[in-house]
Structure formats: C-alpha cells, structure tokens
Amino acid sequence: MSSIRIRSRALLLAGVSVVALAVASPELARAADAPPPVIAKAPPGAAPGPQWEWFLEGAGFQAAGDHLHFFRFDPDNEFGIGRRFRARTGWEIAAGFDYHFTGSPWHVAAQLRYGQASDRSFNFRNDPPLGYPTIASGEHGERHWAADFSVGRELGIGAALGQLKLGVRVAELNARTDAAGTINFGSIPHLFSIRQRSKFLGIGPRVALDGAIPAGGAWHFDYGLGFAVLFGNRTLNDSGSVVGGGGGPISVRSSGSGGVFNLDAMAGVSYWFTPNYKLTAGYRFDGYWNALRTVDSNGAITNADRFFHGPFVRATGKF
User: Fold this and answer.
1) What's the whole-number mean pLDDT along residues 40-61?
2) Rounded Cα gap, residues 80 and 77, in angstroms
C-alpha cells in the first residue's frame, strides 16, 4: 500500500514538472535568443544650451555737450565769422556677439557701433561795428564709432544674470563744418570758403557690468554700465581761402594728445519670444569728456564734451 502511494506521488510530481516545462519553454526559447544584458551608466543630463549670442541694434540719439565754434579769421573777429554749432539728432546702428565657454563662467564678447548726426544747414550774416560784413551758408555734421573687445565672468548674484567685463575700447569722433560766402572789404565783396574738421581717435581700457534681472514670465530688465579712459590725439584743422585783393589762403591747425573719459549706460525691457530669441527696447547714454578740439568764444583753443543719448531697439538670438 505504501509503495503504491509513493509511486502515485512520483507520477504526480513528474506530471506537474512536465506541464511547467511545457508552459515555460516558449519564454525560455525567447530568452535564449535575446542578446545579453548591457551594463551602462545612467543617461547623461540635457545637452548644454547655445553658446553663441548675437545682437543687432538700431537707435536714435540727441547730441549734447559743448558747442563747437566755427573758425575766425583772426582773434579780433574783424571779418565777423563767429558761429557755434552742435549736431542735433542722428541715428546709430550696432552689432556684436557674446560667446560662453561650455561649463565655464567665462565669456568673450565684442561689439561695433556707428552713429551719424544729420547735416545741419545754416545761413548767417554778421555786421561787426569795426569789421567787415559777412554773408555765408553751409552745413555742419558729426559722426562717431566705437569698437569693444572684452572678457567677462558671470557673477551669479541672486536672480540677476550679470557679467563683469574687462577689455579695451577704440573710439573716434568727427565733426565737420563747411561754409562759403562773401566778405565785403569796404564796398568790394570777396568770395571765401572754409572747411573745418575736429577729430578725436583714442584707445584705452574699459570695465563694464551688464546683465538681466527676471521680471516675471518671459520678461526681463536689462542693464549695462561701462567706464573707459581713451588715450589718443585731438586735432583741429581749418583750411580755405579768400579770393580777391587782401585775401589769400586760410589755414589753422592745432593738435594735442591726452586722455578722454568715457561713460556709457543703458537700461531696457526684454521679452523672450522663444528660449533663443528676445527683443529689447530701452534708452542709452554714451558720453565723451574733452574729446573734440575747438575754439572758445574768445578764439582760444579748447576741448569740448560730446554726449549721445536716445532710445534703441535690439534683437538678440542664441545659436
């Protein structure tokens, strides 16, 4: 009896085993055909964002600062030429880039700016009591450009995204005045023409701080502040002639080297349409102290300040 029970249990176990093998055999076959498991590291994080940032800017400006006095034929102003000018409104364009080294707080940046004031036409008549009456007409205009190259480091202060930059600025300012007319020696009119040029070209170190502060959503407040000292040469050249008896060539030249203090600042509001594109509208100031050589109201050589300020619009893209 016991032998029958043992034999029955053995048959039952064998049957269960056969069924289990039959059920598992397709899975085992598929497992045998599968490639061996690969042991790998966890997937890396998101790829770093774009490293190049380019901008294109257009602006309008109002010129301010000292007036430039037009050439006088002599210190006593006997010929009655004594006018002063300053460019009024103009336009400016700018372009530049900022390159961010991957995984580093360091940046390299450069920009180029060019501005030009609209020509100002003028007509005047002077009748000095002890001199010679003069009637003249002409034009006055000014232009300027500046190029910057800098190395910057991210500050990461709070929510502000800012950079401290150290670099170099090269800048040139030009002013020109052309005039022609007549001078009356007694009752005899004499034709004259004069071309006056005032120019500064300098280079020097520049330190700047710029960046953006989040203002909610896609809005940011952009800011910038820069200081530079430009070392270069100021020149004043007057050339022309008076035709007729008692006339002759006109030539006055003055030059001198020195430092020009430069301050520029901007503030604007930006909107990010996409993570890689934004549009900024704001206001900019760019000032140069003692940059342009001229004469004062007494005919002495002096230096004049020149400031440019006005609204701008900037488009920025990351690639």
Assistant:
1) 69
2) 5
Does pLDDT of 205 surpass 90? yes
Q: For 200-230, give one letter per residue: b (16+ CB within 10 A) or e.
A: bebbbebebebbbeeeeeeebbbbbebebeb
Beta strands in 186-247 (DSSP E): 188-214, 219-242
Task: Tell me the average pLDDT of the chain.
Answer: 80
Task: Please give the single-letter amino acid code of residue 304.
Answer: A
270 contacts: CB under 8 Å, gap ≥ 6: 212, 219, 220, 221, 222, 278, 279, 280, 316
Residue pair 96/169 in contact (Cβ under 8 Å)? The answer is no
- Three-class DSSP category at 123: strand
Band of the pLDDT at 285, cuts 50, 70, 90?
A: very high
Summarize the confidence of residues 29-45 as an average pLDDT.
39
C-alpha distances in Å from residue 295, one per residue of 83, 88, 235: 11, 20, 12
Tokens representing 41 are 């590291």
Contacting residues for 282 by C-beta, under 8 A, at least 6 apart: 222, 266, 267, 268, 269, 311, 312, 314
Residue 11 confidence (pLDDT): 39
On whether the CB atoms of residues 89 and 60 are closer than 8 A, the answer is yes
